[in-house]
Design goal:
EC number: 2.3.1.191
Subunit structure: Homotrimer.
Number of strands: 38
CATH class of the largest domain: Mainly Beta
Radius of gyration: 26 Å
GO molecular function, one term: UDP-3-O-[(3R)-3-hydroxyacyl]-glucosamine N-acyltransferase activity
Largest sheet: 10 strands, parallel
CATH architecture of the largest domain: 3 Solenoid
Mean pLDDT: 96
Number of helices: 5
Strand order of the largest sheet: 8-11-14-17-20-25-28-31-34-37
CATH superfamily of the largest domain: Hexapeptide repeat proteins
Keywords: Acyltransferase, Lipid A biosynthesis, Lipid biosynthesis, Lipid metabolism, Repeat, Transferase
Low-confidence stretches: none
Helix content: 10-25%
Catalytic activity: a UDP-3-O-[(3R)-3-hydroxyacyl]-alpha-D-glucosamine + a (3R)-hydroxyacyl-[ACP] = a UDP-2-N,3-O-bis[(3R)-3-hydroxyacyl]-alpha-D-glucosamine + holo-[ACP] + H(+)
Strand content: 25-35%
């Protein structure tokens, strides 16, 4: 287990080190822990003031915190204006996640004319079809399938059983979690007197750099043009991104969200869990949806939008639903009363 000194971690995250009695800048840290459970040799963080009481009682070696919380800290502190960001960088430094593969496994099936850069690792039973290009230090986990003529750029990691279809392009430093499917057919059919006729999906999927895709998420290939996921996009588990969707830079999508076909989502948007966005609409930059939002038309103004109905006691909810059913007749009665008042 690799360890770092308090000073090394402080320098790495851009924090000011404040030492508690008995500690020194060379005190060793080997892992991350929570305020409630961290011990000697572990570092924790405080980014929410409601956990300040835990800060006072923590047995962590050190805590990453905002300078305002220093008076409540009973151990060494790494002070920064954004403790949660500091925690993220410290966690990266102390990360113990293994590689997706340790070598090119003897059971891997590698097709003709595959181009591989330096340090490529391919797990057991993975299939790399002909014409694939793998950049330097790409990791392909066990059981993955990389389709014909796909390309994956340097330092990208695929966990086990990821399927990348033919011609898909994946950028640098991407992370794709287990069982994700990139480049499957979009939902394209024409109706011939009740019989569905499949439309071949001849576009592809293009992922930019630093894109992260969650487990069991599906991104469909374009019908004619491409599905495009721009740099820095992060997508949670079990999401569906349909054909010809375009997601702008640094947009974040939480679990179980569905984006229907040919929709364009702007840059720096956040879409909370279990949201649904209809097809053929455009969402502006810096739009943020709360959980369970149903988006049925385009949005051209940045801001926060909601449509999910929070849970309430059953009796209260039933009364609300009765009122909702009667809203049309109530509106009509109000209009009639307004007419009478005008007269």
């Amino acid at each position: 287990m690799k360890s770092y000194t308090l000073q090394e971690i402080a320098d790495h995250i851009g924090a000011e080190l404040h030492l508690h009695e008995g500690d020194s800048a060379s005190t060793s840290i080997h892992s991350i822990g929570t305020l409630a459970n961290a011990g000697i040799g572990q570092i924790s963080f405080l980014s929410n003031s409601k956990y300040r009481s835990q800060l006072e009682d923590t047995t962590a070696q050190a805590v990453i915190l905002h300078p305002d919380d220093l008076p409540h800290c009973s151990c060494s502190a790494l002070m920064t204006e954004n403790p949660y960001l500091g925690f993220a960088y410290a966690a990266q430094l102390l990360d113990t996640t293994p590689d997706a593969a340790s070598e090119i496994a003897s059971s891997a099936v590698i097709g003709d004319s595959v181009s591989m850069g330096d340090g490529v690792k391919i797990g057991a039973n993975a299939v790399i079809e002909s014409g694939v290009t793998l950049g330097d230090y790409v990791q392909i986990g066990a059981g993955c399938v990389i389709g014909k003529n796909a390309s994956i750029k340097k330092h990208t990691k695929l966990w086990a059983n990821v399927t990348v279809y033919h011609d898909v392009q994946i950028g640098e430093h991407c992370l794709i979690q287990a069982n994700a499917v990139i480049g499957s057919d979009g939902f394209g059919y024409a109706n011939d007197k009740g019989r569905w006729v499949k439309i071949p999906q001849v576009g592809t999927v293009i992922l930019g750099d630093r894109v992260e895709i969650g487990a069991s998420t599906t991104i469909d290939r374009g019908a004619i043009d491409n599905t495009v996921i721009h740099d820095g996009v992060i997508i949670d588990n079990q999401c569906q991104i349909a054909h010809n969707v375009e997601l702008g830079e640094n947009t974040a999508i939480a679990g179980c969200t569905v984006v229907a076909g040919s929709t364009k989502v702007g840059k720096h948007c956040t879409i909370a869990g279990m949201s649904a966005i209809t097809g053929h609409v455009e969402i502006a930059d810096n739009v943020h949806f709360t959980g369970m939002s149903m988006v049925t038309k385009g949005i051209d103004t940045p801001g926060l939008y909601s449509s999910g109905v929070p849970a309430s006691p059953n009796k209260e909810w039933r009364k609300s639903m009765v009122g909702l059913r009667n809203i049309t007749s109530l509106t009509q009665r109000v209009k009639e009363l307004e007419k009478k008042i005008e007269k």
